[in-house]
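Hey, can you fold this one?
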Amino acid sequence: MSDEIVLYTNPMSRGRIARWMLEEVGAPYRTEILHFGTTMKGDTYRSVNPMGKVPSIAHGKTIVTECAAICAYLADAFPQAGLAPAPAKRADYYRWMFFAAGPLEAAVSNRVLGFEVPKERERMVGYGTYQDVMDTLESAVRANAYIAGDTFSAADVYVGSQLGYGLQFGTIEKRAAFEQYFGRLARREAYQRANDKDNAAAAELQKTG
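Sure. Predicted structure:
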């Protein structure tokens, strides 16, 4: 089919974000599981994503990489799913989507790697300090039921995925506001379907080595 959706992923990766978004959209899709260091770095997949990273999606002839872009693209490609606010009401939607893709990801990654920005260099990095990022994110999830207001959106898939992963693995502080916010998201049927599918795929990969 010319409009077929293909998800290129690995269940032990950020591909879980794209899977959740696809389940929220509700459109049929095909999954291709790639292996780190082999098929993910092979010429066939690099023709899809030259970075040799997952996830990527192909929607017909359109290729989209990067989790935030995949979430935003699918919300626009399938407006009937109601996963993006009206264009005139997207300020918070864009703000927090890009906050998670920029300051949040950078601050958490640097912390995990043991890199601490020298105080005199904090103005050079986009996030300032890890504490600033956590405090800002906490204020955002406290403000409304969802990250961009009272309605669930694709921004919640992306922000919520990062929070859920961070809470699970200890890379994000276990603040009550974070746990309450992610708890609401984790009750969504689409999240649970995606999680079940990725867990099953991960178990199958472990069997085959």
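The domain at 87-188 is CATH 1.20.1050.10 (Glutathione S-transferase Yfyf (Class Pi); Chain A, domain 2). Let me know if you want another pass with a different chain boundary.
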